Amino acid sequence: MNWSAAAAVLLGVAVGLGAFGAHGLKGRLDDYSMGVYEKAVLYHFFHALGLLIVSILPRLGAISQSAGTWICSLLLAGILLFSGSLYVLALSGIRALGAVTPLGGLAFLAAWFLLAFRLMRSA
């Protein structure tokens, strides 16, 4: 997979969803739901940016291609599970989706700790 291209697409989607939230959802969601939606956009954006950065590290020789693939896969899973569940929760009000969100958080944590471990091993 071309992780840099995937990151670029995810960054564009984050900008679009952020603009949609700010302009299209203003006044349509209660404060709680708007806060959930904004949190989804924030984590989506930061982790898509992280995905872009991590995707470049194997080309620089900082981590192996295999490690980069694992880390990028975890970041993508985190975006889909964490932010995705929050987007749907905010828009639908289905609280049961909140049970999926921590799985995305765990994927984010695993990605960043795996990156730290791989960077320490390569130093």
Task: Give structural notes.
It is built from four helices and no strands. It has one domain. It starts with a helix and ends with a helix. The protein is mainly α.
What attributes characterize this protein structure?
123 residues, mainly alpha, 4 helices, elongated
Offer a quick outline of the entry:
The chain is mostly helical and 123 residues long. It has four helices and no strands. Helices cover 83% and strands 0% of the residues.
Extended strand count: 0
Report the order of strands and helices: HHHH
Task: Name the overall outline.
Answer: elongated
If helices are DSSP runs of H or I spanning 4 or more residues, what is the number of helices? 4
Kindly report the average pLDDT value: 96
Largest sheet: none
Task: Describe the secondary structure blueprint for this structure.
Blueprint: H1 3-24, H2 31-60, H3 65-92, H4 101-122
